[in-house]
Design a protein that fits this description.
The structure holds 2 protein chains of 2 kinds. In chain A, 73% of the residues lie in helices and 2% in strands. The longest helix of chain A has 32 residues, at 148-179. In chain A, a hairpin with a 2-residue loop joins β3 (341-342) and β4 (345-346). The radius of gyration of chain A is 21 Å and the shape is globular. Chain A starts with 7 loop residues before the first helix and ends in a 6-residue tail after the last helix. By secondary structure, chain A is mainly alpha-helical. In chain A, the strands form 2 sheets. Chain A has a two-stranded antiparallel ribbon. A two-stranded antiparallel ribbon of chain A has the order 3-4. In chain B, α15 (322-353) packs antiparallel against α18. Chain B is mainly alpha-helical. Chain B has 21 helices and 2 strands. In chain B, a hairpin with a 3-residue loop joins β1 and β2 (75-81). Chain B is globular and about 75 Å long. Chain B has a two-stranded antiparallel ribbon. The chains are: A mainly alpha, B mainly alpha. At the A-B interface, α16, α17 and α19 of A face β1, α5, α6 and α7 of B.
Chain lengths: 471, 498
């Protein structure tokens, strides 16, 4: 029982959730209060996790819960981006009348679920965390319940997600059946010999995970859910579940199924190539910025998975670096979206950006930086993200994957350029409001400067990530 | 000397750009930012001249080398120059102030943004020529796309969006394969440091593919036939200053890349692919010259002539002779000056008459005598009359070509005649002849700032045309060293095969 100190962050966030629920029930009109309290509790949570990050590998609860470098790093970027998601969205949910007590509480419970996913070392614990985060996400997607698109996206996400969870569970049960354990390390020990049962198990589990990370061919929900959900929730969708799912991906591939990399490597390569190409091609015709960023995130996940396909520490580290830079770019992009406000209405079509650069030079410049970075043009951060991935991919002589990936960046560059064209080359439209809350401004400033100045000291993230070794 | 002179050369324009970014103008005209930009770029020019002064021309090593840890153990930030790159650095620092002075005429809106874009562009251009690490080179090489895309797209002509996209996507597509090659080189040899790679050499079995990957990038940027089609579009739609930067410096990045990387790193592959380059260069010289003859748009004509001139450059480089390579470098510098001047000259009449169609002009000599004189110098420079820089470059290239392959040299010589034909015909139609168009009568001769910029270009074209020694001195040792290494590698490979 003395091990409780190691899961202090999880305990703290659970207690906070319950406490906020009670406050919400007994105190009238406490939505803003709870929102701010949640933000503070996330900051404390981050401090608690950082406090634990000096520890080495620790197994808890019969080895079903694992705290190591990977889980610590992933939790830090998870909670860190959670804070910024809350900061940027605060004004938005007030304006569109969504400032209810459930909103921050759902976000916190989802984060709790993701933390459990990230640390899980057992199929059952993993599934518990997964469902906790998914349940919260179903509600969040349809949070704007008077809006047809929002309810549709919630329902769509629920149905498809439930299906994928079913497949995932089936995979888990197959794996359990053939390897006689639910513990990741035990599965690894018991699955030294090839058998079809575990192979099928891997396939089903990968399908479930690919769904969570919205990789092709399990991406169908992403564009609709991204577009239908309230923008603040879309931002959440674009970052946090991806971090958690990628972390679980790494964990599954390199702990229980590490012996069977010849089985899953082809699957990951296929998913990765399909996502890169599909994400790039399908985004070309989009008119809605949120929909476009959904396709863009599909293609970005393709690059992150390309790193995982390499079966090397270098590859894993490159994927983690990729997702870290990806989340900053998304934060910056959505901060810009939140600034497209006029008379209490938010604009989210690409056409609404027309001629933005004339009246809003700073906002346009930030968007320019973010979009070039998303396209992976040097010297911006997005280039380094891709560079690390391809460094790892080419190390393993996977030239086909590298060349397809890089050609897909050229296709993807087209639609990012199209947005830049609309911002910079097209005639201007009405002005947007210029007063924004401080959280939004800070997020945009920090993330833009990060992207812009990343090349000055690019080894910062790499050095931290290089501690994460799985093989 | 410990002072990081190259890094300051690279960073100074960016610092200037930041300075301009934070200045506010009360009048809204941003005259003050123009002076800041001009001051910064002139300071950079003087710094580069100082660099040339202290540069040891007899040494074959890279000088002023800076080597800093950058990408945690993988890749170092390494810059340095030899006799070849210093000329391109000076060309870049020389053209930029001229561009900034000419901004007056062509850019009416968003002057501040334009100046920032030019200064950032200068940083990347100098960076390309200084970098001694493949990744650093790639970084600068690609980063230049961003400001150029904006320059064409924001301040360009009617079809600017199409041209800007075409420019960006063509170049990006060519370059991504180079990135694959660079990373492969890292895993094959364990380094991307150019100097170390020269020493280590790359195994013969890898060279062909790597060479092709680099070639795909440089061929688009040069541009070589058949991937040259972005250039006429980009030139026609870009504002005058954009065309100047594009023609004078951006195209030279590829030629420089051929000498430094294709020849230096992959000698065996370069030898294997010589014929391919010859054929593509000859097609570029003959075919685009013919196309240039038929153009009705002045800028398009000059753009096609650029393709033809760059055909000479690639031809000269791959003759692998002292004369050929020196000629190519000289031709690149010369073309940098002449094409910049020609685009500025077109800008002069375009700004007054708002058309670039050749048949709308004629008889300008009677109303714009000064303009006629400088335009004549540039025309003669472009067609390679003895006494201008154009002659020396083409002459040396053809000398090199005759040594290697007489047929190729003879076909290439035809290009010289065609070049004279389209340039003289252009000059005749615009400057001489009768003045049919009565509107032209109101056109004024050159303004002061135009005299400054154009004469700043006339002087080096004539000076180095009569006295090429300073430039030749500077490149001689480096070219010789490149060729020695090249032949050494080839012989080694030959011996090891036996």
């Amino acid at each position: 029982m003395e091990n409780f100190q190691y899961i202090l962050p999880e305990i703290f966030i659970s207690v906070s959730i319950m406490l906020f629920l009670l406050i919400g029930v007994f105190k009238k009109n406490s939505a803003s209060l709870i929102y701010n309290l949640s933000n503070i509790s996330l900051i404390i949570l981050l401090a608690l996790i950082i406090n634990l990050s000096s520890l080495n590998t620790i197994y808890l609860f019969n080895e079903s819960y694992l705290i190591d470098n990977l889980s610590n790093y992933m939790k830090i970027i998870l909670v860190g981006s959670g804070i910024f998601v809350m900061l940027t969205g605060s004004k938005y949910i007030q304006v569109i009348n969504l400032n209810k007590i459930e909103y921050p509480i759902l976000i916190l419970s989802s984060i709790l679920g993701m933390m459990i996913m990230i640390s899980s070392n057992d199929l059952i614990v993993f599934y518990m965390g997964l469902e906790l985060q998914s349940l919260a996400l179903y509600v969040l997607a349809s949070f704007n319940r008077d809006n047809l698109l929002s309810t549709e996206s919630g329902l769509k996400y629920f149905v498809l997600s439930a299906l994928s969870s079913g497949l995932l569970l089936y995979g888990c049960s197959l794996t359990y059946g053939f390897s006689e354990s639910t513990n990741f390390d035990q599965i690894l020990i018991n699955s030294t010999e090839f058998n079809y049962g575990t192979t099928f198990g891997i396939v089903f589990i990968l399908v479930g995970l690919a769904f969570k990370i919205s990789a092709v061919p399990f991406h169908m929900w992403a564009p609709d859910v991204y577009q239908g959900s309230p923008t603040s929730v879309t931002l959440f969708f674009a970052i946090l579940p991806k971090i958690a799912a990628l972390s679980v991906f790494i964990k599954f591939l390199y702990t229980p199924f590490a012996n069977m990399n010849d089985q899953w490597q082809t699957i990951i390569v296929f998913i990765s190539i399909a996502s890169m190409i599909f994400g790039a091609v399908a985004a070309i015709g989009q008119k809605n910025l949120k929909r476009l960023i959904a396709y863009s995130s599909i293609s970005h996940m393709g690059y992150a998975l390309a790193g995982l396909a390499t079966v090397s520490n270098q590859g894993i580290q490159s994927s983690i670096t990729y997702i870290s830079i990806y989340l900053v770019m998304n934060l910056a992009f959505f901060s810009c979206l939140f600034m497209l406000k006029r008379n209490d209405k938010y604009y989210e079509n690409i056409e609404d950006l027309s001629g933005l650069s004339k009246k809003h030079p700073i906002l346009s410049f930030s968007l320019l930086i973010v979009l070039f970075s998303l396209a992976g043009i040097p010297p911006l951060a997005g280039f380094f993200a891709k560079f690390y991935v391809f460094l790892a991919v080419i190390e393993q002589s996977m030239y086909f994957l590298a060349i397809v990936g890089l050609l897909a960046t050229v296709v993807a560059a087209f639609y990012y350029l199209r947005i830049i064209k609309i911002i910079y080359f097209d005639p201007e439209k009405e002005e947007y409001e210029t007063s924004h809350n401080i959280g939004l401004k800070i997020t945009l400033a920090i993330s833009t400067i990060f992207i812009l100045a990343y090349f000055i000291y690019p080894s910062g993230i790499t050095e931290i990530v290089s501690k994460i070794t799985m093989i | 000397m410990n002072f990081p002179i190259l890094s300051s050369l690279i960073l100074l324009p960016t610092i200037g750009a930041l300075f301009i970014l934070f200045t506010k103008s009360t009048s809204g005209k941003y005259q003050s930012s123009k002076y800041v930009a001009l001051f910064i770029s002139l300071a950079n020019f003087l710094l580069s001249l100082y660099l040339w002064y202290v540069f040891d021309k007899n040494s074959v090593d890279f000088q002023f080398v800076e080597n800093r840890e950058w990408l945690s153990g993988f890749i170092n930030y390494k810059v340095g120059i030899d006799g070849i790159s210093i000329l391109f650095v000076i060309l870049a620092t020389f053209i930029t102030p001229i561009c900034i002075i000419s901004v007056n005429a062509t850019i009416t809106n968003r002057l501040k943004d334009f100046l920032i874009a030019i200064l950032i562009m200068e940083t990347f251009m100098i960076g390309v020529f200084c970098s001694l690490d493949l990744v650093v080179f790639y970084l600068f090489f690609e980063a230049g796309l961003i400001p150029m895309f904006l320059i064409i797209g924001i301040w360009g002509g009617e079809r600017r969006v199409y041209s800007a996209f075409k420019f960006f996507l063509y170049t990006l597509l060519g370059s991504v394969l180079m990135l694959v090659a660079i990373i492969s080189i890292y895993w094959i040899t364990g380094t991307t440091d150019v100097e170390k790679l020269y020493e280590l050499g790359i195994k013969a079995e890898y060279q062909n593919l790597l060479w092709l990957a680099f070639f795909s990038s440089f061929a688009v940027k040069t541009p070589m036939w058949p991937v040259h089609t972005w250039l006429p579009d980009a030139h026609v739609e870009a504002p005058t200053v954009g065309s100047v930067l594009l023609a004078a410096i951006l195209l030279k990045m590829a030629g420089y890349g051929f000498i430094r990387f294709s020849l230096g790193l992959f000698p065996i592959a370069s030898e294997n692919f010589t014929m391919l380059v010859y054929i593509l260069s000859l097609i570029a010289i003959i075919y685009t010259s013919l196309v240039a003859l038929m153009q009705e748009d002045m800028k398009k004509l000059i753009a096609y002539s650029s393709v033809a001139h760059m055909g000479f450059v690639t031809l000269g480089i791959f003759t692998m002779t002292q004369q050929g390579i020196e000629g190519s470098i000289f031709q690149m510098i010369s073309h940098g000056l002449v094409s910049a001047a020609l685009f500025l000259s077109v800008g002069v009449v375009y700004e007054r008459h708002h058309t670039r169609l050749i048949n709308k002009y004629g008889g300008l000599v009677s109303i714009m005598p000064r303009y006629a004189i400088v335009f004549m110098v540039f025309t003669l420079g472009a067609l390679g009359l003895p006494g201008t820089t154009g002659f020396i470059g083409e002459f040396l290239i053809l000398m090199g070509a005759f040594e290697k392959n007489i047929l190729v040299a003879m076909i290439a010589s035809l290009g010289v005649i065609l070049g004279a034909a389209y340039m003289l015909w252009l000059f005749k139609r615009v400057v001489f002849g009768e003045m049919h168009n009565q509107e032209l009568k109101s056109m004024k001769d050159l303004k002061t700032f135009e005299i400054i910029t154009l004469s700043a270009l006339v002087i080096p074209i004539l000076f180095f045309g009569f006295y090429p020694e300073p430039l030749m001195n500077s490149i001689e040792a480096s070219v010789e060293n490149t060729l020695n290494m090249y032949n050494f590698d080839l012989i080694n490979n030959f011996v090891s095969k036996d």
